[in-house]
Write a structure and sequence with these properties.
By secondary structure, this protein is α/β, with parallel strands linked by helices. Helices cover 43% and strands 12% of the residues. Helix 1 packs across helix 5 and helix 5 runs parallel beside helix 7.
């Protein structure tokens, strides 16, 4: 048995630039916070796993004073939690409105994996409500019901720690060699590798220049028939991706000949 485990942001949909960033900035504006992230600054914040953690990174003494925030850790944590709840609501509404289309190949690969009886999962540091919204939009509500969803604060350490992928294996009842992870970032790849799981990377605009040493292969997307062919950026596996990545390519990563 082989399981297919997806990261969410940047993998299921191009969510960072067109979803999370504007949702963060709208939240900052609504709360009257003296900060706006441009694309470059947000790219730097992406090195921090988790939305609340990115917000918490703002809490320098200077920022706390300028924003009139509580000085005690408990009060600051309460403020960050309130910001994050509002940000999640804004973002989820954007997903529901169809503002964040799925990345190429996601729906196709998921259908092929389901037909081959591969267990499906999502493992993400984003809030569960956000992850479920993106998943349902990307693959449809019916197919989304076939996924094991692991998200948010379900583990104590976020990526690049392997915790969420180790939990995914535990929930699925599988060993590391029985799963493949689809990721888009160095942190995600590091988490998968530390958990002992083979990882295929589909880069996006924010992550294309990152170090993906240890990935089975790296492509610019999973691609779809009839669309522009994918670009294979690196390949250290037995797979031989063509114009688009197939389930057979993913099976080949684990040395399997027949994805069924």
């Amino acid at each position: 048995m082989t399981a297919l485990i997806f990261d969410c942001d940047g993998v299921l949909a191009d969510t960072e630039r067109h979803g999370h960033l504007p949702a963060f900035n709208q939240t900052f504006a609504e709360f009257g916070l003296p900060v706006r992230w441009d694309e470059q600054e947000y790219g730097r914040r992406l090195a921090i796993g988790g939305g609340k953690e990115r917000m918490s990174s703002l809490l320098t003494p200077e920022f706390v004073a300028a924003a009139g925030l509580p000085e005690d850790p408990a009060g600051q944590a309460e403020a960050v939690a309130a910001w994050h709840r509002r940000k999640t609501a804004i973002y989820t509404a954007m997903v529901a409105a169809g503002d964040l289309p799925a990345r190429p190949g996601i729906a196709r690969i998921v259908e092929q994996a389901h037909a081959a009886s591969w267990p499906l999962a999502v493992a993400s540091t984003s809030a569960e409500a956000s992850v479920r919204a993106v998943l349902e939009h990307a693959v449809g509500p019916e197919r989304a019901g076939d996924f094991t969803v692991l998200a948010g604060d379900i583990v104590p350490r976020k990526k690049p720690a392997p915790d969420i992928y180790l939990l995914a294996l535990d929930r699925l009842g599988l060993a590391p060699h029985q799963a493949i992870v689809i990721e888009d970032s160095h942190n995600g790849l590091a988490a998968a590798v530390a958990a002992g799981i083979a990882c295929v990377v589909t880069v996006n605009g924010y992550t294309a220049g990152e170090d993906f040493t240890g990935a089975a292969f790296v492509v610019d997307s999973l691609g779809d028939p009839g669309a522009d062919p994918v670009t294979v950026l690196a390949n250290h596996s037995p797979a031989t991706p063509g114009p688009y990545v197939t389930l057979a390519d993913l099976a080949a990563v684990l040395g399997e000949r027949d994805p069924a």
